[in-house]
Amino acid sequence: MATSAPARRACLALLLAMTAAIALLPAEPALAAKECGAYRGKGGPYAVRVLRGPVTCKTARRVLRRYATSKAPCDGSGCYRTQKGWTCGSGGTQAFPRLFSCQRGKKRVGAYSLAD
Length: 116
Known about the structure:
By secondary structure, the protein is an alpha+beta fold. It is 28% helix and 29% strand. It has a domain at 34-112. Strand 4 and strand 5 form a beta hairpin.
């Protein structure tokens, strides 16, 4: 069965439009933070989030709890500490509702205020 010239042109136009739309998509979609619930124990309460990288919620809670309950002295005004390969620091008032976050390579976790 032969296809008419107008039908072929319409198919070609549709194919080109779809190709252009795909080309405009970002190479990597932005991933939203993974919510890991609230921590209400010693050093809390705060919401736990995985901000970047392959980090389990269990690890995120452990790393943030370790920073929040540490008695180690702080370095600098952001209360920076490095513990077990994670570098953590407080967010300061300009970062609210983020209270503090920790990073290890490309992995990043954060503690956020539960206040509205």
